[in-house]
Design brief:
This protein has 146 residues and is α+β, with helices and mostly antiparallel strands. It has five helices and eight strands; from the N terminus they run E-E-H-H-H-E-E-E-H-E-H-E-E. It is globular. The mean pLDDT is 96.
Protein backbone atom coordinates (compact mmCIF):
# COMPACT_ATOMS: atom_id res chain seq x y z
CA UNK A 1 0.00 0.00 0.00
CA UNK A 2 1.60 3.21 -1.17
CA UNK A 3 0.76 6.85 -0.59
CA UNK A 4 -1.73 8.19 -3.13
CA UNK A 5 -2.17 11.63 -4.63
CA UNK A 6 -5.78 12.79 -4.83
CA UNK A 7 -5.12 16.23 -6.32
CA UNK A 8 -2.83 19.23 -5.85
CA UNK A 9 -4.14 19.79 -2.29
CA UNK A 10 -4.86 16.29 -1.00
CA UNK A 11 -2.69 13.23 -0.50
CA UNK A 12 -3.47 9.94 1.16
CA UNK A 13 -0.65 8.88 3.48
CA UNK A 14 -0.44 5.20 4.38
CA UNK A 15 -1.21 4.62 8.03
CA UNK A 16 1.52 4.80 10.65
CA UNK A 17 1.01 5.32 14.39
CA UNK A 18 0.50 9.08 14.88
CA UNK A 19 -1.87 9.23 17.81
CA UNK A 20 -0.84 12.71 18.93
CA UNK A 21 -2.22 14.14 15.68
CA UNK A 22 -5.19 11.82 15.26
CA UNK A 23 -6.60 11.73 18.80
CA UNK A 24 -7.98 15.31 18.69
CA UNK A 25 -10.15 14.39 15.67
CA UNK A 26 -11.82 11.75 17.83
CA UNK A 27 -12.12 13.97 20.87
CA UNK A 28 -14.70 16.12 19.12
CA UNK A 29 -18.04 14.88 20.44
CA UNK A 30 -19.92 15.91 17.29
CA UNK A 31 -17.51 13.97 15.06
CA UNK A 32 -17.79 10.89 17.31
CA UNK A 33 -21.57 11.10 17.09
CA UNK A 34 -21.43 11.41 13.27
CA UNK A 35 -19.16 8.42 12.70
CA UNK A 36 -19.93 6.04 15.57
CA UNK A 37 -23.17 7.34 17.13
CA UNK A 38 -21.19 7.73 20.36
CA UNK A 39 -22.08 10.08 23.18
CA UNK A 40 -18.49 10.00 24.45
CA UNK A 41 -15.18 10.82 22.81
CA UNK A 42 -12.37 8.38 22.10
CA UNK A 43 -9.54 7.84 24.51
CA UNK A 44 -6.08 6.75 23.41
CA UNK A 45 -6.76 3.03 23.96
CA UNK A 46 -9.89 3.08 21.82
CA UNK A 47 -8.12 5.03 19.07
CA UNK A 48 -5.25 2.53 19.03
CA UNK A 49 -7.67 -0.42 18.90
CA UNK A 50 -9.64 1.14 16.04
CA UNK A 51 -6.54 1.87 13.99
CA UNK A 52 -5.10 -1.58 14.68
CA UNK A 53 -8.31 -3.20 13.45
CA UNK A 54 -8.67 -1.02 10.35
CA UNK A 55 -5.00 -1.33 9.41
CA UNK A 56 -5.06 -5.11 9.79
CA UNK A 57 -8.31 -5.48 7.85
CA UNK A 58 -8.15 -2.82 5.15
CA UNK A 59 -6.26 -0.10 3.32
CA UNK A 60 -5.95 2.65 5.90
CA UNK A 61 -4.71 6.16 5.10
CA UNK A 62 -4.42 9.53 6.74
CA UNK A 63 -5.87 12.40 4.74
CA UNK A 64 -3.34 15.18 4.20
CA UNK A 65 -4.80 18.51 3.06
CA UNK A 66 -2.43 21.37 2.24
CA UNK A 67 0.35 19.55 4.13
CA UNK A 68 -1.72 18.99 7.29
CA UNK A 69 -3.14 15.68 8.43
CA UNK A 70 -6.85 16.22 8.89
CA UNK A 71 -8.56 12.83 8.92
CA UNK A 72 -8.45 9.23 7.88
CA UNK A 73 -10.05 6.90 5.38
CA UNK A 74 -10.15 3.13 5.06
CA UNK A 75 -11.25 0.78 2.29
CA UNK A 76 -12.09 -2.64 3.69
CA UNK A 77 -11.88 -5.81 1.56
CA UNK A 78 -15.68 -6.15 1.44
CA UNK A 79 -15.91 -2.64 -0.04
CA UNK A 80 -16.91 -0.76 3.09
CA UNK A 81 -15.53 2.78 3.22
CA UNK A 82 -14.87 4.58 6.51
CA UNK A 83 -13.91 8.24 6.51
CA UNK A 84 -13.39 10.92 9.13
CA UNK A 85 -12.51 14.52 8.42
CA UNK A 86 -11.68 16.70 11.43
CA UNK A 87 -14.24 19.41 12.12
CA UNK A 88 -12.04 22.39 11.09
CA UNK A 89 -11.52 20.78 7.67
CA UNK A 90 -15.12 19.87 6.91
CA UNK A 91 -17.12 21.63 4.17
CA UNK A 92 -14.07 22.01 1.90
CA UNK A 93 -15.06 19.08 -0.36
CA UNK A 94 -12.17 17.04 1.03
CA UNK A 95 -14.36 14.01 1.71
CA UNK A 96 -15.81 13.75 -1.78
CA UNK A 97 -12.39 14.14 -3.38
CA UNK A 98 -10.94 11.45 -1.11
CA UNK A 99 -13.84 9.06 -1.72
CA UNK A 100 -13.37 9.39 -5.49
CA UNK A 101 -9.77 8.24 -5.00
CA UNK A 102 -10.93 5.37 -2.77
CA UNK A 103 -13.32 4.32 -5.55
CA UNK A 104 -10.31 4.21 -7.87
CA UNK A 105 -8.45 2.07 -5.33
CA UNK A 106 -11.45 -0.27 -5.17
CA UNK A 107 -11.36 -0.65 -8.95
CA UNK A 108 -7.64 -1.48 -8.79
CA UNK A 109 -8.39 -4.14 -6.18
CA UNK A 110 -11.28 -5.54 -8.26
CA UNK A 111 -13.82 -4.65 -5.59
CA UNK A 112 -17.13 -4.51 -7.46
CA UNK A 113 -19.14 -2.43 -5.00
CA UNK A 114 -18.25 0.10 -2.33
CA UNK A 115 -20.55 1.10 0.47
CA UNK A 116 -20.83 3.29 3.53
CA UNK A 117 -22.96 2.89 6.62
CA UNK A 118 -24.23 6.35 7.53
CA UNK A 119 -26.51 7.14 10.46
CA UNK A 120 -29.83 8.72 9.49
CA UNK A 121 -29.07 11.90 11.46
CA UNK A 122 -25.73 12.43 9.66
CA UNK A 123 -27.15 14.52 6.83
CA UNK A 124 -23.74 16.01 6.00
CA UNK A 125 -22.19 12.62 5.15
CA UNK A 126 -25.32 11.43 3.39
CA UNK A 127 -25.26 14.48 1.13
CA UNK A 128 -21.56 14.04 0.41
CA UNK A 129 -21.87 10.38 -0.60
CA UNK A 130 -24.99 11.05 -2.69
CA UNK A 131 -23.24 13.96 -4.46
CA UNK A 132 -20.65 11.57 -5.90
CA UNK A 133 -23.13 8.93 -6.99
CA UNK A 134 -23.80 6.63 -4.04
CA UNK A 135 -27.37 5.34 -3.82
CA UNK A 136 -29.25 4.75 -0.59
CA UNK A 137 -30.32 1.10 -0.43
CA UNK A 138 -31.75 1.05 3.08
CA UNK A 139 -32.04 3.39 6.02
CA UNK A 140 -28.31 3.63 6.69
CA UNK A 141 -26.52 1.96 3.76
CA UNK A 142 -25.26 3.73 0.65
CA UNK A 143 -23.65 1.85 -2.23
CA UNK A 144 -21.90 2.49 -5.50
CA UNK A 145 -21.11 -0.08 -8.17
CA UNK A 146 -17.54 0.53 -9.39
Amino acid sequence: MLNRTVDEEIKLIKYYPNYKTALPWYQDLEVCKQVDNRDTVYDLDLLKAMYKYLNRNGDLYYIKYKNRLCGDVCLQPDGEVNIVVAKPFQNKHIGRRVIREIIQLAKEKNIQEVYAEIYSFNTQSRSMFESIGFQRVDDEKYIMIV
